[in-house]
Write a structure and sequence with these properties.
The complex is a heterodimer of chains A (166) and B (793). Chain A has 166 residues and is of the alpha+beta class. Chain A contains five helices and five strands, in the order ββαβββαααα. Chain A folds into two domains: 2-77, Ubiquitin-like (UB roll), CATH 3.10.20; 86-154, [2Fe-2S]-binding domain (DNA polymerase, domain 1, Orthogonal Bundle). In chain A, α3 crosses α5 (140-154). Chain B is an alpha+beta fold. Among the domains of chain B are: 22-30 and 487-630, Aldehyde oxidase/xanthine dehydrogenase, molybdopterin binding domain (Aldehyde Oxidoreductase, domain 4); 426-472 and 635-793, Aldehyde oxidase/xanthine dehydrogenase, molybdopterin binding domain (Aldehyde Oxidoreductase, domain 4, 2-Layer Sandwich). Helices cover 29% and strands 25% of the residues of chain B. In chain B, the strands form nine sheets. Chain B has a seven-stranded mixed beta sheet, sandwiched between helices. In chain B, strands 9, 10, 15, 16, 17 and 18 form a six-stranded mixed beta sheet that branches. In chain B, β28 (592-595) and β29 form a beta hairpin. Chain B starts with 21 loop residues before the first helix and ends with a helix. Classes of the chains: A alpha+beta (166), B alpha+beta (793). At the A-B interface, α1, α2, α3, α4 and α5 of A face α1, α17 and β33 of B.
Amino acid sequence: MKSITLKINGAEHTAEVSPRTLLVHLIRENFSMTGTHIGCDTTSCGACTILVNGRSVKSCTMLAVQADGKEIITVEGLATAEGLHPIQEGFHLNHALHCGFCTAGLMLRAVELLEKNPNPTEEEIRWGISGNLCRCTGYNNIVKAIQWASAKMQGRELPSTEPEFV
Amino acid sequence: MIKCKTSKEIGGMGHSKKRKEDARFIQGKGNYVDDVKLPGMLYMDIVRSPYAYAKIKNIDASKALEIEGVIAVVTGKDLEKYNLHWMPTLMSDTQMVLPTDTVMYQAQEVAAVIATDRYIARDGKEAVIVEYETMKPLMDPFDALDPDAPILRSDKEGKSDNHIWHWEVGDKEKTDDVFNNADVTVKQQMHIPRIHVASIETCGCVASYDKVKNHLTMYMTTQAPHAIRTVIALVAGHVGLTEEKIRVISPDIGGGFGGKVPVYPGYVIAIAVSFLTGAPIKWIEDRSENLQADSFARDYHITAEMAGTSDGKIQATRFKVLADHGYTDASANPSKFPVGLFSIGTGSYDYGAAYMEADAVYTNKPPGGVAYRCSFRVTEAVHAIERMTDMFAKKVGKDPAQLRMENFIKKEDFPWASPTGWSYDSGDYHAGLKLAMDTVDYDGFRVEQAAARKEGKLMGIGISTFTEVVGAGPSKDFDILGIKMFDSAEIRVHPTGKAIARFGTKSQGQGHETTYAQIIAEELGIPMEHIEIEEGDTDTAPYGLGTYASRSTPTAGAAAAMAARKLRDKAKKIAAHLLEVSEQDLEWEPGKFFVKGAPEKSKTIQELVFAAYTNHPEGMEGGFEATHYYDPPNLTFPSGAYICIVDIDPETCDIKVRRFVAIDDCGNIINPMIVQGQVHGGLTQGIAPAMYEELIYDEAGNILNGTFMDYLVPTAVESPSWETGHTVTPAPHHPIGAKGVGESPTVGAPPAIVNAIVDAVSHLGIKHLEIPVTPFKLYKELKAVGYFDKQEA
C-alpha cells in the first residue's frame, strides 16, 4: 500500500492505495464520488474522463498512485457557488444528454477543449470529442451544447436553444 | 409549428420543455447500479469459456480459494443442488445459468468468484483452472440445418436436429400465383448482421437478500422491473422467495436499447449467492463481457423477392428468413411472436399479396435476439422491403421516389388492412416523402449527380419510406410469459395541487420524467414542474411491462392521460358542487372549470383538488388519486421518409454522408425537443449497422471484435449532422394521438444509407451491397466490376 495525497475539486484528500488501484476506482469507491463512470475496459468510451492538472484524462487508464500530488476536477466539481458551469448549462439547455451515463466525461472533455480552443468550429468539436462515445443522442446536440458554452464563456450572443426543424 | 393547448407555464403537450431529469445527471448525482453500495457487500466476477463448444472436464478452484478475500467459487454443480443451473428464456426455451458439463459459446459463464473486493474477485477468476475438451463448433446457420450436423441441444429430450421453430404468415398460394404471372420480379439474398446494443453502461446488479426478513432487494439494470420480479418469483418460489418478498429496483439506467430486457445468468447467480450467504452481492460486467456474452440483435438471413408490373406497380412480396439464435432462443419478443413484428415488412405500399416464412436454428453463438432500439424485428423487415423497392424501381427503370409515390397507401385509405394481417391506423406517406424531397432538393441533386458522373465522381441519393409498428400491445395478442402487455399509471395529487405519478415503465434516457409530466399537465392543467414522475421501484409503482419497443408513450402515456381524465371528471363533480351548478353547465379550459356563459364563475384545478381533501361533496370519496391500466385497442404505426446523400471517395472508397434528412410522423408530439433528440440518437444507431457495426466470428467460434477497440460504435466524427422534421398524423385510437418514436430512426435509416451507396455505384453494374457497407467491402465490389481497371486505363 502507498499513501497518496491529491486535491479533488479543491479539497485535499489522502488515501492508502494498492499500487494497482485505478484512479477511477479511487474516486468512485474510496471517495464515493460516483459521477465519474466506467463504460469500457479498453480506454475507448471516455465515460471516466476527468481533469488532471487541467488536462482531460481517462481515469480508467491511470493508476491512483500516478495521481499523487495532482489536482483533479470531476463532474462534482464543475459547478461553483455562483451556479452551474456553462458546459453544464449548455448540455441541459440543448438537450445534449439522454441517459446521462456518458455526460460527465463529455462535459469534462469539452471543458479542456474550450480551454485550448475557445471558439471551435463544428468539425473541431466533433474531432475534439471523438474519444468519447455517446450511444443515445447522435451527437448533434452535444455539438450545439459545446457551441453554446463557447458563446457563453466568450461573452458572445447566445445561440437559440429551441430545436430547429426542417 | 406545433399548436399547444396549454400555456407555457402549464407546459402540456407540444412544449419543448427542458428535461427535469437533467439536473442530477449534469451534476454527477445520478444513481446507476454500480453506484449502489451496501454494508457488507461482496463482489462477483465470472469465469468465462475461451471455447465456443467444449466439454468441461474439471473445474479446479483450489488456487482461487487460497487467495485472501476470496469467499467462494460457484459452479453449475453447486447450482444444480438447488435446481437453479438452468432457467427459462422469455421464448420458453432453456438457458444455462452455469454449465454442469458443456459450454455452448465463447465467453459463456462457467463459474462465479465471490470476494471482498472487485480486484480480489478478478484475481480469483484468473486462478480458477478449468479443463476443457473442445469440439468443433457449429457457426454457420445454414450448416446447422444439414442433416449430418451435430445436434447442439442434445440436452433436450428427443431433439434430433438444430431447428428451433418454423413461422409463416400471409397467403402463400395467392402470392405464388402473382409471382408466376408477374411482368417483373426481383430477388436478393441479404444478411442483416449480428450486432450489439452496446449501451454505454453495461449490465449489472446488487442482489441483497435479508435472511431475517426473508426478503430480496434486487437493484438491477432492467428495462422491465415488474416482469423481472414475477420471473424471479416463478424461478425461485420453490426456495421460499415468493413475489411479495421481492423488490426490484431499477435505478438510473445508462441506456438500454433492448439489451436490458433479458435475464442474464449473472443476475441469477448473484441472487442465488446472496440467498445462500445473506450478503449483498454486486456484479458489474466489463464492456468486453457485455459485447461477447450479452444478447445480440438481428442476425437474419433473408431471401427477399418482389413482383410487379412493368410500369412499376408493386403486386407482391415473398420473404424467407433463416434466424441464427445462438445456442438457445432467448429473444425478447412477445410470446406469440417468434419473429417479433417482422410481418410489418410489406411496408408503406398498397398491394394485396404477401407471404413470409422463417426458420430459426441453434448455433454455437451467444443467445439473444433483442431489439437494438427497434420494435421486435421491424428493422430487419424494413431493410428487406426498402431494398427490394429500390431494386424493383431500378429494374422497371423508374425513379425510386416516383415509384414510391405511386405505390404508397393513400391517406384516405386508412385504416388499411395489410396482407399479413395488420390494421395500419393512420399515415400520410405522400406528405412525408414530399417534405423530405423538397428539403433535400431531390430533383436538384439528380441534376448534380448526372453531371458529376460524367467527371467520374461517385455520389448517390437513397430513400427509405418506412412504416413502424409499436406500442405492444393489445392484450388479446400480446403477452410476455402469459402476462398481458398493458401498462399503467397512478396519479396522486396532494392537497396543495402538486402531484406524483408512478409508472410500470422505466426510462433509460427517453425523458419520461418530463414527457409523462407534460401529458398529465395537458389533461389536468397542473404545471408540469409540479408533477413528479417515479418509475423503477416495484414496491411503489403499479404493475407494468416496462420500456422497450417504443411502447411507453403508446401504453403508459395513454394510461397517464386516462388516469388524469378520471381525475378531471372528479374535479368537475367537485366544481359543480362548489359553484352550485350542474355538471352540464361547466366547461373546461386547461387549469380550470368555469360556468358556461359566466367565465368569472370558475374554480381552478388547485382549488378543486384542495376541496377534495377539505370540502368534498357528501357521498363522494375523498382524496384525489387515480390509477389506470391501459390496454391498447391496436398498435400504433409511426412512419417516416428519410433521404440520404452520400459522396464516395473514388480512391479510398471512404463513404461520407453529405446530408441526411429525416421526416418522422409519430402522431401528436408531446415534447418536440425530446422527439428530435430521440430521432438524432436513433439515426446514429441507424448509420451504425449500415456502415460500421457487426459482431464477427471465425470458424473456430472466436469473436474477432469483442471490445470497444474493434467494435465500431460511431463517434461524433462518423455521425453526420442530422436534419429532422415531422408531419403529424395522430393515431386515431390513442387517447392523446401519439404513436411512439424512439426507434423509428434506427429502423428507417439503414436502407436509406445503403440505397444511397448503391445509387452512387449502380451505373457501374452494382445492384446490392451487404451491410455494414465498409470502404473495403465497397472497394472489393468496385474492383469486381472493373471500376479501377477503367480508371487506370
